[in-house]
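G., the chain you wanted modeled:
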Amino acid sequence: MSERICLVLEALSIVVCLHRLYGQRFKFDIVTLCFLTLDMVMMQAIDYYQLPSILSMFIYPVIALYCGIEFGFKLREIIINNILYLVIVGGIQLLVAMCYGKIFNILFFSNMDLLIVNGVAFLIILIVLPQFKINKLSVYLQDKERILIISLVFCVFLATSSVVSYKIFKEAELYQYMPLFLCISFIFILAGQLNKFKIISKMTETELKTHQMYADSFRNLIEDIRLRQHEFDNQISTIYSQHFVHHTYEDLVNAQKEHCEIVMKENRYNKLLSVGNHVIIGFLYGKFIELDKLGIEVQYKIDIESFDVKVPIYKLVEILGNLIKNAEEEVILDKVLFISVVEEEGQFEIEVRNKSKFIEYDEIDSFFKKGFSKKGSDRGLGLYNVKNICSEYALRISCTNKNIDGENWLSFVVTNKREAIKIKNTKISIPIKNNYSSCKKI
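Predicted structure as tokens:
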């Protein structure tokens, strides 16, 4: 009889603890009654028919199912709260048993002693536990990274305990080997997941920093344009007043035309700032101004909106930066670059090209090798990095010679469009050769 009461008290302790972990008051409803009945039936059956002790482990899936039915099927919450109730209920029972054994100098507990221990533990859980907001601990631990770390520590602890137990007692049963095997398996899985999560966290942090950096740059550019508005007003006044110094209509028209061309040239990139993703546009605007100061003419086609293309923005900025830097270094005689960024329905195409002599296939192939550069040592990483980013995000990159109006252009194109032809199942694929361009597989 005392054994059955112990089972009921232990089951009630678990139920009360779970309610507190979910931030709810204990309620004795039909679901709880069914769980308590099933628990009693399973434990009594194992004891009555003298079944293997390992079968008692089947109660844990039943408890998890009870949590789902009673509180909702949120997997992360169920896992965390089941681990916590094991620690809390088990810890309280162990503490009570140690104190009881110490006070009464008991080494081996009788059924009555176990009944007293379970009764005191249940009263502590029922009366004392509600004074602590343990549901906040549950919420705190539901963070992904904390779950992985805690689960890893728990598995390491359990595996170590099993090994130490075997060393001391020199024996172990089958049901002890199974948790050890599971813990070792989970240690490897969780260690890999934790490392993966840290990599993703680092990438996300880098992306946020990039967003912040280029958002600040964009705001600074907007502020610069506002400051130049006063200068623009002065230019308008100058154009308007030119009729006072020019005596013929033809001289006035020519002077106004010349002055307007100068003003338009100085502000030819301003219309960029009214369209598209602010990070990409802010970066391109800054690059265009930088190239202009180097005496390089920029021809461009920008047609983007949110630029939501399932590739991190900071990676796209890195691709653009490397391609533009490479083209900038190759501009020698005719200092002209063409830059195109086009987006449509989740697909995009980035093209950067510069006038160049015809490049042979073998030389194009070497562009993407690590360390290849015509500019000296410790260089040649830009295109290699672009190739790696394309491989990581299943993008296609091509390098082609394009004949445009009788002049050869070296064109680099990065896209996520599906029209490109795959070569040997690689993630990076190159268009086939045609009459107007030549290309090399990367």
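Residues 268-439 form a domain with the Heat Shock Protein 90 fold (CATH 3.30.565.10).

Shout if anything looks off.
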